[in-house]
Amino acid sequence: MTLDSSAASFLQMLVDAGRPPLHESIPVDARAGYDALAPFGGEGADVESVTETTIDGVPCHVVRPLEVSTPPVLVWFHGGGWVIGSAEASLAVCRDLAAAAGCAVVSVDYRLAPEHPAPAAVMDCTAVTKWVLEHGSEIGLDHRRVAVGGDSAGGNLSALVALDLGEELCHQALVYPAVDLTISHPSIDENAEGYLLTKAGMEWFVGHYLGGTGIEAGDASVSPLAAPSARMRNAATASVLVAGFDPLRDEGLAYATALSDAGVATQTKAFSGQIHGFFSYRMLIPEAEEAIDWVAQQLKDAFAQR
């Protein structure tokens, strides 16, 4: 594999800026640093509206596409290792997905660790998704066609919600998901340093997320890859996107295989020259647009089958 030149330029820009390593930061500083990168996602596509609301006590952004009266819904969970990130910082991606897939996007501002460790994020994401399934029609959404999706930690949350809600959902879109918190797959060491997300960074995230909870990293309540195949069997169809220079590459591929082996229709797309996080930075990494379009097409296909 060869590192994409635009990804390499992005990484060099971060080095030149003198950004401190994530694992040497405190959460408040790490959040500010992550949010400062949001403009590299652009403003996002034109949509009908973006509104801030609260769903079952959880803050959310609702993005509605142009010219779709009762759109299907993607409930989106942002990335950031359960510690950083926000619905606001991921707004450009949500606008792009809404426009490309012709769906509404409900982006969830779930509670973050370490202030709110596991399972707070899972509880928030599940609550919002259940509300959309049961009450989405009350706000002009097609509650019969609901998918979940997210990047990184958001992919983890999407997979867990999809396991919980099963065939009530029509799809799960997992973008370089963190599905095994034991941090033990070969790509964790192969891509341990130098590609934005690091092994030390993952250890920092998991430490904040699980610290003091008593939940083991390999527990299926936080690591979907540990779920038995009998539980996976009823999950919604899936699309799994991975990046070649990502510490999480191998666990994402392993989860796609596990879903497929359990009988779940699963599509996998590997961007072999890319790094973790590229999906959010299409202003600097052009291949992000192709990745967004691929996820959007998977969603469109799934919505069309309901």
Radius of gyration: 18 Å
Distance between the termini: 38 Å
- Encode the helix/strand succession as letters: HHEEEHEHEHEHHHEHEH
What is the spatial order of strands in the main beta sheet? 1-2-4-3-5-6-7-8
* Proportion of residues in β-strands: 15-25%
Report the helical percentage: 25-40%
Principal-axes geometry comes out as: globular
Mean pLDDT: 97
Helix count equals 10
Specify the biggest β-sheet: 8 strands, mixed
Number of strands: 8
Spans where pLDDT lies below 50 across 5 or more residues: none
Q: Structural class of the secondary structure composition?
A: alpha/beta
Structural features, described:
This protein has 306 residues and is α/β, with parallel strands linked by helices. The protein is 37% helix and 17% strand. The chain contains ten helices and eight strands. It has helices spanning 5-16, 27-35, 91-101, 120-135, 153-165, 186-190, 199-210, 229-232, 249-261, 287-304; strands at 49-55, 58-64, 73-77, 104-108, 146-151, 171-175, 238-245, 266-275. Helix 3 packs across helix 10 and helix 4 packs across helix 5 (153-165). The longest helix has 18 residues, at 287-304. The chain is globular, with a radius of gyration of 18 Å. The protein starts with a helix and ends with a helix.
